[in-house]
Fold:
Amino acid sequence: MKTLAKLLLVSVLLISAALAGTITTAPGGFAAHSPVQTTQADQQKNKVIVWVNTHSGVYHCPASRWYGKTKYGTFMGECEARADGYRPAYGNPCGSDCN
Structure:
């Protein structure tokens, strides 16, 4: 009985998602993410929030010693920091895909 209820719930969720346009059916009947959704997910994944030391002009990656700890600074995306002329601390970028 529980298995049938779970199967019904999953079916309802998949139908709702398909009607909302968040998934499409690929050739062969398999569900696939829409290209717009994948692009947004990639952008979210590649956006690293860094701590910019506005006094020294360098930015620090998450989990680094000085992340959020310098006296003068602000949080921003790594690509935005590079565009504003800041450079990575110790010459090591955090890994954002800044095209």
